[in-house]
Amino acid sequence: MLPTYLMNKGWLYDSKCKKIVAEVFNDIADILEKGSYENKIKIGLTTLGSELGEEEIIKAAQLAKNKYSDFEVVLIGPNEVEGFTCFRADTEDESHKIMEKLLDEGIIKGCVTLHYNFPVGVSTVGRIITPSKGKEVFIATTTGTSAVDRVEAMVKNAIYGIIAAKACGIKRPKLGILNIEGAKQVEKILLEFKNRGLILIFVHPFEVMEALY
After folding, report:
1. Range of the domain at 192
2. Would 66 be classed as within a structural domain?
3. Which end of the chain is more exposed for a tag (fewer CB within 10 A), N or C?
4. Are 116 and 143 in contact (CB under 8 A)?
5. pTM of the predicted model, to two decimals?
6. Would you say 174 and 201 are in contact if contact means Cβ atoms under 8 Å apart?
7. Mapping DSSP to helix (H, G, I), strand (E, B) and coil, where does residue 104 land?
8. Cβ 79 vs Cβ 54: under 8 Å
9. What is the pLDDT of residues 11-58, one digit of tens each?
10. pLDDT (0 to 100) of residue 97
11. How far, in Å, CA of 6 to CA of 198, rounded?
């Protein structure tokens, strides 16, 4: 949405608006000429803290770089990696401070990190490839706390997982509930949502475990 109109003339004269319009046309020209958008959204990735080791995180960054053209991965960690913009951090705590700084300054628009103390109400949906079958699965959620109450948190996590899966192009994601404590209460609430029109496809926990292992 363009910000300012001169009411008497009905046209844009603000210099910032002119700049925005010029940038938009330049971006359109780049897309038409090169087939891709050059001003990619930058997403941070901290490389420390994974039980799989830093090498696996960097491999994931390289896979994302090769697969997707609409965003750029920015690495935060102890090593320089060829082909990536990197910010040096030698500890997890330092990584998180640099991540926060980059977010505050608008250098990155989001970040994937580990062992970060999110405030209550913030959680992340994990997207993984299962080791045994190579099947893509969403785990809702992997870090953070959706709510203080377990049942409320699990219900919210189920909805978050469905949203994430649909955002990634899965039109009819299936949902399995793995937690034992509170699982029946969660299922009852979700079934009520389903009766009210929410499209839910449940699978048995055994089917979920089979997919994972």
Report:
1. 122-212
2. yes
3. N
4. yes
5. 0.60
6. yes
7. helix
8. yes
9. 444 566 666 667 666 666 666 665 655 678 899 999 999 888 999 999
10. 95
11. 46
CA 208 – CA 213 distance, rounded (Å): 9
Nearest to 44, CA basis, from 119, 115, 100: 100
Most confident of 90-104, 155-169, 177-191: 90-104
User: Looking at per-residue confidence, does 207 or 90 come out higher?
Assistant: 90
> Exposure string (b/e) for 66-100, b if CB count within 10 Å is 16 or more?
eeeeeebbbbbbeeeeeeeebbebeebebbbebbe
- Same domain, yes or no: 107 and 128: no
pLDDT at 1 over 90: no
| Both tokens assigned to 158 | 């189920």
The residue type at 79: N
Instruction: Indicate whether 84 and 133 sit together in one domain.
Output: no
Q: Based on the fold, state whether residues 95 and 169 are members of the same structural domain.
A: no
Q: Which residues contact 171 (CB under 8 A, 6 or more apart)?
A: none
Residue whose structure tokens are 């969403």? 138
Residue entry with tokens 């770089």: 65
pLDDT of residue 67: 87
Mean pLDDT of 99-108: 94
Structure-block tokens of residue 180: 């034992």
Look at residues 112, 140, 158 and tell me which one is the last residue of a structural domain: 112
Q: Specify whether 106 is located in the same domain as 140.
A: no
Number of domains in the chain: 2
Q: What type of residue is 175? A: L
